[in-house]
Design goal:
Number of strands: 16
Distance between the termini: 95 Å
Largest sheet: 6 strands, parallel
Order of helices and strands: HEEEEEEEEEEEEEEEEH
Strand order of the largest sheet: 1-4-7-10-13-16
């Protein structure tokens, strides 16, 4: 019995090891790039799965097979760069220089879109630039969240308020 329990443990550990290796190989083959505070640059002969950047910018000169997204940064696609998915910039600008292509949608919220006439966009283009867009995106939802919190507090206080009965006194 002890011999079969040992075999079972070795089989489980071996299976776990093989599963870990296969998952790591799939993840590295995907070539997704995600950065926080550090710019992403995809060179002319480089391919990437998806590129996502928080507080930084993305420069594409090669081929991105997925989406390109920045939060608080800019996107620059130049020198024949190609994006097969969508390109989205929140609180940042986007520049499409020269004969570049974005197969999906292009969206810029809180920044400017500069597009060369040779640039190709396969989907829709949305540009909500300037401070008014940031008010709509950030401040307005916070206002509604604050209003909902105030309403909940008011309802709870109203329900917890002790009721005082007034009785008629006889004189």
């Amino acid at each position: 019995m002890k011999y079969s329990a040992r075999r079972l443990r070795i089989l489980l550990v071996g299976s776990f090891f093989l599963l870990t290796l296969s998952t790591a190989s799939v993840a590295s083959a995907n070539h997704d790039r995600t950065q926080v505070g550090s710019n992403i640059s995809i060179g002319p002969n480089e391919e990437s799965g998806e590129a996502t950047c928080f507080g930084c910018s993305i420069r594409v000169r090669g081929h991105v097979m997925g989406d390109v997204t920045t939060f608080g940064g800019s996107i620059v696609i130049e020198d024949g760069g190609q994006v097969d998915g969508d390109a989205t910039a929140f609180a940042g600008s986007m520049r499409l220089n020269g004969p570049v292509s974005v197969s999906g949608d292009v969206a810029v919220f809180g920044g400017q879109l500069r597009r060369d006439s040779a640039a190709s966009i396969g989907g829709d283009t949305t540009n909500m630039g300037g401070p008014s867009a940031m008010i709509l995106i950030v401040v307005l939802p916070l206002f509604f969240l604050g209003a909902m919190a105030a309403l909940v507090i008011w309802i709870i206080r109203r329900l917890l308020r002790t009721s005082v009965r007034v009785t008629a006194q006889q004189f």
